[in-house]
Amino acid sequence: MQPLANITPLKLVSRAGAIQVDGVGHTYRTSGQDVVALSDVSFEVKPGRFVVLVGPSGCGKSSLLMMMAGLRRPTSGTILISGAPIDVPDPNRVGVVFQEPSLFPWLTAEENVEFPLTLRGVARKERRAKAQEALQLVGLDGFGTRHPHELSGGMKQRVSIARGLVQDPPVLLMDEPFAALDEQTRMTMGDELLRIWAATGKTIVFVTHSLTEAVYLADEVVVMSARPGRIVDRLEVALPRPRTFEMLSGDTFGSLRDRIWRHIRKSA
Ligand SMILES: Nc1ncnc2c1ncn2[C@@H]1O[C@H](COP(=O)(O)OP(=O)(O)OP(=O)(O)O)[C@@H](O)[C@H]1O
């Protein structure tokens, strides 16, 4: 009989929030010619990590995010979210925030946040309670009855983040969410996002063109080549948390940003 010490204990590991991208490629078939956007992209994200994707314009970052959100099918390879394939959007597993907040102008902030729950037929009282909780999380307590035109750019993006979080998905995908904001608001929103991330423990995959934003936010930066996008580097950001403004001028920060820039310059 096998001695007990040699038996590997069965590990009950929760895969909620884990992302596995395996050999993913994507080709857009247009009437003129095929556009190979991505080729053989593989990486894993452990639950609760903050991963930032960077790469030259047109390298396929948004396409990759759309596939991770179930909004597009890979031409090759597989994507697992929380251990299962993602073939169609599933707001219970993945929340998505885009560059433009894309709020309905005729709905209040609260109603915009509630919208995914309204689509699912959730009762009004429960919808309202969840929307208020999400608005509180993004720092918009008391602004629920305002319409989008009564909110600043940063506040609108907060509403959009609250909408992405309202169904409490373990994964949040963010495609250049702060790109349209002025620099000061963008910095503040970065800190706000880190606060929300720390409070919720979500897995976040965040796309940006800003190398400073990438290093400031990330546990890990994944660098992609020019189209067809492939992964050319993965950098662990070994800066302590909470991140602070002072870190931006430190040597560690500078050398990480330089390393990313060297890849991007080579690809451009
Ligand atoms: N619907 C489409 N039909 C044809 N080609 C497309 C389509 N969408 C994207 N592409 C092409 O696929 C490539 C990747 O596009 P994608 O938007 O994913 O890149 P990106 O890295 O997010 O770009 P950017 O950083 O400029 O936002 C680009 O060459 C783009 O022109």
Automatic annotation (TrEMBL):
Record key words, sorted: ATP-binding, Nucleotide-binding, Transport
SMART domains documented for this protein: AAA (SM00382)
GO MF terms, alphabetically ordered: ATP binding; ATP hydrolysis activity
All residue ranges annotated as the ABC transporter domain in the record: 19-251
Regions annotated as coiled coil: none
Alphabetical list of CDD domains matching this protein: ABC_NrtD_SsuB_transporters (cd03293)
Family: Belongs to the ABC transporter superfamily.
Described purpose of this protein according to its UniProt entry: Involved in beta-(1-->2)glucan export. Transmembrane domains (TMD) form a pore in the inner membrane and the ATP-binding domain (NBD) is responsible for energy generation.
Name of this chain's protein: NitT/TauT family transport system ATP-binding protein
Species: Bradyrhizobium canariense
